[in-house]
Amino acid sequence: MKKIKLYISALLLSAFAVSCTVDDVKPQGTLDEETAFSSPDKLVTAAYAKLGDDWYSYPFNLWPYGDMSADDCLKGGSGENDTGYHPMEIFTTLQPDRGEFDELWYQLYSAISRCNRAIEAINKMETPDAKLLGEVKFLRAHFYYIISFSRCGTKYLSLLKV
């Protein structure tokens, strides 16, 4: 009797597993290619938005990576644990696996990815807008400059003809 119940439950489970595929479910919170490339000006706006996406754990003004580590300024704050930059200030507990180094690199390459998407969308337009294209290429160059200045390890990411 137990074997019959086991076989029936296995049969029902396999029937439910086969009836639905992953392709049936549309992803939420993402843009498909057609929607994203239909309005390149919004992609340009998204690339510009990364300029103001400045947070204390990955500041784009690079003060923790230069001025603070050279003793030109102090971290400030209420104590040693309010940000992760205290080891950069004192240099005694500084490790290469600090999240503050990686997060700046991640945010900058995310900005470069937005620029590349905008460039691709502009190039797919019937008549590409040279002004928008120039703006986005300048933004991409700016983000590459910050990466090269902060010595995060620059990798040029572009599948496009520059």
Q: Tell me, rounded to a whole number, the average pLDDT.
A: 76
Structural class: mainly alpha
Computed Rg:
24 Å
Alpha plus pi helix count: 6
Which stretches are poorly predicted, pLDDT < 50 over at least 5 residues? none
Order of helices and strands: HHHHHH
Distance between the termini: 71 Å
Question: Can you describe what's shown?
Answer:
The protein has 162 residues and is mostly helical. The protein is built from six helices and no strands. Helix 3 (40-49) packs parallel to helix 6. The longest helix has 25 residues, at 99-123. The N and C termini lie far apart (71 Å). The mean pLDDT is 76.
List the helices and strands and how they pair.
Blueprint: H1 2-19, H2 33-38, H3 40-49, H4 86-90, H5 99-123, H6 130-149
Helix pairs in contact: 3-5, 3-6, 5-6
